Write the structure tokens for this entry.
Amino acid sequence: MGSLGMQPKSPFTGRPRRRTTRPWVKFGDQLARVLITFGGLSTIAAVLMVGIFLLAVALPLFRSAQLDFEHAGPVAHGPTGAFGMGTDESGSVVWLFAENDGRLQVLDSAHGESLLSRSAADCRLAEATAIRTLSGTMQAVVGYRDGSLRVGRIGLESTFLAASDLPSGEAIERGAVRVWQDAVIVHNPNGQYSRVELIAELPAHTTASLNAQVIDVDITPLANGSLLAAIDANGRVRVESVSQRRNLLTDAMVQTSTGSIIEPLISAPSAAKEKSDAGRMQFVRVSELGDQLFVMAIDGTALRYDIRDIEAPVLMETFSVTQDAVEVAAVARLFGGTSLAVADSAGSVRVFFATRAAGAQAADGLKMMAAKTFPPAHSSGQAVRITAMAASPRSRLFAVADSTGMIRLLQSTAESTVLSVPATAAGALAGPASQMLIAPRENRLLAVDATRISAWALDAGYPEVSPRSLFGGVWYENYPAAMHTWETTGHESFESKFGLMPLIFGTLKATIYAMLFATPIAILAALYASQFMHSTWRARIKPTIEMMASLPSVVLGFVAGLVVAPLLEQAVMPVITGFFAVPLTLVAGAHLWQLLPAGWRSQLSGWRFPVIMVVALPAGILVAMASAGWVERLLFQGDLQAWLDGGGGSGLGGWVLALLPLAGVATTVLVGKIVNPWLRRKSTNWSQPQAAIVSLGMFGVGVACTVAIAVAAAMFLDALRLDTRGGLFGTYVQRNALVVALGMSFAIIPLIFTIADDALSSVPDHLRSASLGAGATPWQTAVRVIMPTAASGLFSAVMIGLGRAVGETMIVLMAAGNTPLMGWNVFNGFQTLSAAIATELPEAARGSAHFRVLFLAALTLFAMTFVVNTVAEIVRQRFRRRAHEL
Amino acid sequence: MQPQIDNRPENRVNATIPPQQSTPPPPADRLLAVAAGYEVPTEVHEQVLNESPVLEIDRFNLWYGTKQALHGITMPIPDKKVTALVGPSGCGKSTLLRSVNRLNDLVQSVRITGDMRLNGDSIYDPRMDVIDLRKRMGMVFQKPNPFPMSIYENVVYSLRIDGENNRGVLDEVCEASLRGAALWDEAKDRLYDSALGLSGGQQQRLCIARAIAAEPEVLLLDEPCSALDPIATGKVEDLIQELRGRYSVLIVTHNMQQASRTSDYTAFMYLGRLIEYGPTTEIFTKPILHETEAYVTGRFG
């Protein structure tokens, strides 16, 4: 043979073969290699890019706030007398009124130049002792030395200008301002021009006056007017609702007001305290909705009135806002709601709001709680006293200044110190700030001490969002305790609740319930189809189920949410009994099949599947429907929904339902371990029909045992006063986890089924033959040999189903009710990360905290599916290594 | 290496006359007659019929769809003896073997007539429980096919499926079977390791241990050495020698030397028909038919 090697042979096929590879084949090979490498790398890059993009949008949430000193200038401001300050909408221009300075002046807030000035008398601000203005509406209330009050408007009104409307010639740089006629032109940093006019209208006195000098005032807007509160030096409080209406005939504004006086309130019983002024009421605040009035004394005694009937305020409760006899230094109403930030002379700040707390004594069931506490900035020996406090007009951010010259920005929702800067450094202020202001856009912070005014450019970032507020419980305003809450829209938008936990929980809940429902069905169906089903039937069933996978999820969601949910609500009990009755009927049917004569059985073996579908399944459904009524009477007092609502009845029924599957498993294990071996020894000489009758009997006894065990355990747990309501079960809501599980199973069963069926079918036939040849039944073969061998495929089938369930959007969006609740109740709704993103992202303002938090939710979802898939792949590889050795 | 002589049967058949309409006399060569579709008698040596049979195959026919794979096989399998089935590829040896424990039931197009009797019990009786039937036989396949579990669990599989969980019983059976399969010394220190870690020869002996753990009435070996190297083959053959006299063994093999070394009786099959069946020594030294002689001496096949 060796001698033949080198000799030229005559071609056997009559066609000589080229012995070099053609260049284009080599080229094609190279091209394929390059394309495949490129494609693979691009896929990895694309996935990474998605992650990076989500991260890039979400990451600014965690950037820290910045406060940059801009300028400081002199300002005349004595220690007494009224002081008012405000800015225009863009924060470029500031107005300032100090009573002992005697004029209302307008400054360029970035550089401190004086732009306009009007005398106090012109503005009817002479003799003013207390001023409060609202930044948006410019509504103002002013109290005077003689106890009288005026309401009106003070502030800077901006009107946008087109570039063509600008005054002659000279260009204005961005961020700069110019005086033009009696107004100021602002070219704000966004490039817009606006004309800013100083408004100071205080048309008339209000109806009633207080007796003495007004020391504090507050105002809140109402539908067509405002609600104001004022307190005088004697502690008398005036609350008044002022409304303006335009007279249709004369076109003149008519101001009407109603209100009442609350007589001097001295909190402390001791006269000594009265003398030292500590017990005299000094601060007055109204809630933003105008339904509550808070009056506070220096010593921290505080009163809450219900002023919904403005002519008859009702005292609701007396509480204390300070501890250990320290004095109240400043009070600020935070943006929205009823929260009051109270700073004390020891340097700490507490945020109070009314909640429905246990132990509330007030008639309205509310109680003022110190929900947030900010400790003093310096805890060293030095006494720190809060000297000024200002709340942001657009968020729960507020600034406090203390006697050490520090200015801190605090965030109430996150209970965090956003930043802290020394106000006296770098030639800003000379001493501790006595007044502060945060501009409406939170772009500027202004502080005033006895002689100077100072401005800082502020970039607050997203102080309300922190890892703790996203993933930990947060005590939101008016909530009874710290909670995981997701609420970003609606009336409570003043304090958006960006807790991601309810969404993560909802995602897990949807996944777990859907998988609990779908996995057993899909895996058992695949096992049946691949191992037991007659091949002709299998050839029809498999494509049908695979076709289910192509149903658009929006259709499934629609069907689940709008067709299944209302039907299910009418038939909860039959569906629940069906969970037990259908499998039991199928097993009973299998036992009855064994009773058929042997000849029939072998002849009919190809028709097992249609017999199951046409006889056993409908029989199971009939049993479920027939038994629903008396099960409901027996366990749930005849009305399941009322029982779920907590409407009386013991918790027995719920426990029986919850424990039946466990009892079933326990019984099966007991029978398999103890009874079956014994029976097998006994039955060696029995004929097949005898054995079949005995096993049917065993099945009946097993079912009876299961029910008995479940009822016994349920009675025990019920006797311990435990109840499933509030846990696994609870009030029935139409769109609930059960509906989602049913709808989602349509999406994931075909997926799991197909992959599991492929995995089970691809188990080498020789293993099956070996097991069957050893005398194992097909079922033993399936469970002991086929399933362990196909474990990697089954696992990846389940994991792919899981991945689909975690990311599923449309079905949960339409069928889950979108209520971001945390609770395992099967009959209650939830909201998933994906559904929240789908519903809210189109409405979220670009760049807002909401927008970025939704991207963070997307990133969380991405991470969840990534982790699920990675774990799945690792586990699958382990299984696979084992399977590969076959 | 010898020069190739093209004596493959299909080529030889190709050279002969096709079956003709006018019923010509069958060719003198029985193999040619079989190929041409003629019935040929089976030559069964006298000695076979004197043995007490464990398994009687009685006029057994089998079809895959419309294609007949076995033609009227009638042969008794002697008790406690090793019987080899030899014949060229596709002659139906494995089909016959798989019919004994009804593994062919799994193939849906299969149709049979005739019967087999295991110790007098009809295998194809409709009332026969196929699971019980298979518990009375052990089978070893061409390719080693241990289950993906430990060596120990592989051996005691047949006991496990019968619900035997008594550790003592299982341990005893495991050791006895592994010793019986001459694997004990190699496997005793790694009983709980995966069976897939064994070499091919060890795996095949494990499969034999698994089969004999069930105390079968008949042990069916379907070309047990075809996937093994010569050393492993030698070990398995030694094992079969040791099993002789304790078990009734029916072995399918392609290897004439193996058949002559290991078996007491040999049956020669050709295209679904049993051609000659007798004691191994006679089949290999003085067969009745010259066709058998041609095959066993390697002149064709």
About this structure: The first helix of chain A runs from residue 23 to 58.
